[in-house]
Specification:
Shape: rod-shaped
Number of strands: 2
Order of helices and strands: HEE
Largest sheet: 2 strands, antiparallel
Radius of gyration: 22 Å
Strand content: 25-35%
Structural class: mainly beta
Length: about 80
């Protein structure tokens, strides 16, 4: 048996964060080519109730969770 309280709404357990993301790189002062690489991704999962006979308090119409990942590979520039 779990001691976790499943009655807590998702909005109470999670807070929303808004952030601006951007990326820029430069080859440096020595190299002629840029060896830097970056990747910014958005990933998520969602659920939408199409039809159910559950009472309203027992279900949510939609559920969406989104995350972001940022990766950098620094080249050998000077």
């Amino acid at each position: 048996m779990s001691s976790r309280d499943d009655s807590v709404e998702s909005s109470e357990a999670w807070t929303s964060l808004t952030a601006d993301v951007a990326a820029k790189s430069h080859q440096g002062h020595i190299r002629e080519n840029n060896e830097d690489h970056y990747l910014i991704v958005r990933f998520g999962r969602s659920l939408e109730t199409v039809e159910t006979n559950l009472d309203l308090p027992l279900r949510r119409k939609t559920y969406e969770l989104t995350g972001y990942g940022m990766f950098v590979a620094d080249g050998m520039g000077g």
